[in-house]
Amino acid sequence: MAEARRCYDPGGDAVEVIVADNASTDATPQIAAAGGCRVIRVERRLIAAARNGGGAAARGEIVAFVDADSVLHPETFRAIDETMASERVVASATGVVPDRSSAGIRLTWAIGRMATRVLNIDAGVVFCRRADWQAVGGYRETLRWAEDVRLLLDLKALGRRTGRCFRRTRGVETVTSTRKFDSHGDWHYLVLMVRAPFLWLFLRARLDRQLERYFYQPRR
């Protein structure tokens, strides 16, 4: 993040960085504050609430969201400017690559990439105009997971009504942590994808418990 800010604006004032501290129990607030970030405390333990808390505190015309365990491409903010210069774009994303590779991770990413192409969405740094983010109500806090997918689908629906579209921002992919693979194994996500439809149909409560542990445990 710091390098991307310096590349865009050496003075560092043009990009406002907000860290949504979602009731963490570690040193997240202190580390973020020491790095020059605004820290917003969000007590409700919910990913969508954390994203909304950060977005609501932002003051810029463009809002961008990214997970804390990500590394931004140095040209990210310049690319955001170029993408949002078009009035035909309602939202965009940089795309994402893992910080390490293995057979399991490569296959997982390939399947995920196909899914994003079918839905015409993406991940990484997700951004849009603040007014549009507000118009769709931000991230849906009725969802415990997949709130990021839902936001982009909501923004695309807004775009269809207003003659705009989702457009990928290329060449500045965000590097994301593979810590979930480190914890659960390099093939775990493929196993989850195979089991999830069956659990959703016949053992919904069990699936909900598994996803709750996956996204919200251990608490940090």
Give the helix level as a range of percent. 40-55%
- List low-confidence stretches: none
Mean pLDDT across the residues is 94
Q: Please give the alpha-carbon distance between the first and last residues.
A: 21 Å
Rg from Cα: 18 Å
Please name the fourth-level CATH homologous superfamily. Answer: Spore Coat Polysaccharide Biosynthesis Protein SpsA, Chain A
Question: Main sheet?
Answer: 4 strands, mixed
Question: If helices are DSSP runs of H or I spanning 4 or more residues, what is the number of helices?
Answer: 10
Q: What do we call the CATH topology?
A: Spore Coat Polysaccharide Biosynthesis Protein SpsA, Chain A
Order of helices and strands: HEHEHEEHEEHEHHEEHHH
CATH architecture: Alpha-Beta Complex
Number of strands: 9
CATH class: Alpha Beta
How many domains comprise the coordinates?
A: 1
Give the amount of beta strand, in percent. 5-15%
The chain-level structural class is alpha/beta
The general outline is: globular
Widest β-sheet, arrangement of strands? 3-7-5-8
